[in-house]
């Protein structure tokens, strides 16, 4: 048993070091390239009256010669439609056209599909209503489409800066998602992306039949599309644009309950990918955290067990701090070692909670629950 935990500690440090190395390696794209395509931004929203002014303000500030914005209302009942209509009517910017439409059904995928079907742009970009876009977003996210073989570009998402530990915990969690996203693309097996920061060719979307076959799932519009593109065009059709100019900032969850609900929703789709590689990539990080959690039993093995437990925790904390601070430093996010220490100690319990939630299979999101069917 002691040997097992000792090897786990060594393997974990090596894994985190490898991921940090892959993050530091430059993507194969040319940073100096700037996209100049006909583009359409699809912005689905449901009950987002409190977020629409922020996202639309960032859209108005986008630096691009000409683009189209399509807002799709997914059954809002909080006045979001009227608010969006008034904000757009008052806009004096003339570098974009806009349409405000109702979804042809219910659910985010249906809303996205409604907008994409009416889009005029050759490149589609999607984001969420609780986000803020960087000024150069359209140029940076469309730049790699100059390569004919690139059909989908994924970009980074981070929660906005905060001063409390709960905010730091979420930023560190997001950093782990970005780390795995880039590493999987670099290794030729793209695994995940976020619909809050995604660009793809409309022709590719149509060629893979969009979200067909996945409408019944409440979550996963982004990853299901990613997998379809990879199956049809190969892994090289996906590019991960991790430059700081591409970062979309989202609002952090404000309670532990809402954070768990979000993670339940994300994790609930892992078995739907029907890929052993994807299943393994989802299970391995979870298994590591559960093994770390089980290591508390080493205390009962005397001083030798206590020493190994201390060494194991130290390797976990330092490995995560080294890899995840590499990501956050890259984006100018400075988080104290103390926050990393607390996150590393708490995270196994958080993962266990998510696992239990996924097994139970129930969650709520934007007034809909896991039993919702479009």
UniProtKB/TrEMBL annotation:
One Pfam assignment: Glycos_transf_2
Keywords: Glycosyltransferase, Membrane, Transferase, Transmembrane, Transmembrane helix
Lineage: Bacteria, Pseudomonadati, Bacteroidota, Cytophagia, Cytophagales
Start and end residues of each Glycosyltransferase 2-like domain: 40-207
Family per similarity comment: Belongs to the glycosyltransferase 2 family.
Taxonomy, superkingdom: Bacteria
Protein name in the entry: Glycosyltransferase
GO molecular function per UniProt: glycosyltransferase activity
Transmembrane segments: 6-23, 275-299, 305-324, 345-363
InterPro entries tied to this protein: Glyco_trans_2-like
């Amino acid at each position: 048993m002691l040997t097992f935990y000792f090897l786990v500690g060594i393997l974990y440090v090596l894994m985190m070091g490898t991921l940090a190395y892959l993050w530091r390696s430059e993507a194969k794209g040319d940073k100096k390239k700037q996209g100049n395509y006909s583009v359409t931004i699809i912005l689905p929203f449901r009950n987002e009256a409190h977020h629409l002014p922020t996202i639309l303000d960032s859209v108005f500030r986008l630096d691009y010669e000409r683009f189209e914005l399509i807002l799709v209302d997914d059954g809002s009942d909080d006045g979001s439609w009227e608010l969006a209509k008034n904000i757009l009517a008052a806009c004096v910017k003339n570098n974009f056209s806009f349409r405000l439409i109702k979804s042809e059904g219910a659910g985010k995928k249906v809303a996205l599909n409604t907008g994409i079907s009416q889009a005029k742009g050759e490149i589609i970009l999607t984001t969420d209503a609780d986000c803020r876009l960087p000024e150069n977003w359209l140029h940076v996210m469309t730049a790699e489409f100059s390569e004919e073989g690139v059909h989908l570009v994924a970009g980074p998402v981070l929660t906005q800066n905060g001063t409390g530990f709960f905010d730091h915990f979420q930023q560190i969690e997001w950093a782990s998602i970005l780390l795995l996203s880039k590493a999987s693309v670099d290794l030729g097996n793209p695994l995940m992306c976020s619909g809050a920061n995604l660009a793809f060719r409309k022709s590719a979307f149509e060629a893979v039949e969009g979200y067909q076959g996945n409408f019944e799932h409440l979550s996963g519009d982004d990853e299901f599309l990613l997998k379809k593109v990879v199956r049809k065009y190969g892994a090289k059709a996906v590019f991960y644009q991790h430059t700081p100019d591409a970062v979309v900032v989202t609002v952090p969850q404000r309670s532990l309950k809402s954070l768990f609900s979000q993670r339940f929703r994300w994790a609930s789709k892992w078995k739907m990918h029907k890929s052993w590689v994807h299943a393994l990539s989802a299970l391995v990080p979870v298994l590591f955290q559960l093994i770390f959690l089980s290591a508390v039993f080493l205390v009962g093995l005397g001083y030798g067990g206590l020493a190994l437990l201390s060494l194991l925790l130290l390797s976990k904390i330092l490995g995560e701090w080294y890899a995840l601070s590499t990501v956050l430093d890259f984006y100018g996010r400075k988080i104290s070692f103390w926050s990393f220490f607390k996150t590393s100690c708490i995270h196994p319990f958080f993962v266990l909670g998510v696992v239990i939630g996924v097994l139970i299979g129930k969650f709520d999101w934007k007034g809909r629950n896991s039993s919702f069917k479009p």
